[in-house]
Amino acid sequence: MLRAAGIVSRETISPEIDEYVDKKELPRQHALRLAREKADKVAKSRPGCFVLAADTVVACGRRILPKAADKKDVIACLELLSGRRHVVHTGVALALPDGTMRARLVSTRVIFKRLTPREIEAYAASGEGVGKAGGYAIQGRAAAFARAINGSYTNVVGLPLTETLALLEGGGFPIHS
Predict the structure, then answer these.
(1) CA spacing 20 to 30 A to 115: which of 14, 31, 51, 149?
(2) With bands split at pLDDT 50, 70 and 90, how would you rate the model's confidence at 8?
(3) Is 55 an active-site residue?
């Protein structure tokens, strides 16, 4: 998405952080904390650079759904989301060259139609939801499941583009060069 907006990264790093969920932590706090931790970890190894990090969490109420590890997780997530409203939270953090950090949280409400066991099984068998927060990718086959989206579509894809570009521009990153 950033490349499509004209932002090209010099380097992409996947920082290894502990993505544990603190029992007292709300989903929105969790997404923002993980984004900040990722940005901080990379910024320490790249002083003087702009470092952008994000983390997306799918939540049903206070419950944080996993990033589906396998077909079984995809099925469990879709069974929970079927016919229900859920919220996709993405924390976006920008570490600035001067060592400071800015962060934003974007939340989008999504309502899924009631899914049949056949739809759930077919989607899980496609493999598309593996590795995805909440076990689905809205930009793929799961688009047919969404009855309504209230908020940023790109947030549900995994990076709220409008808000991320505003964060970069506000931090002094040259986005229109």
Answers:
(1) 31
(2) confident
(3) yes
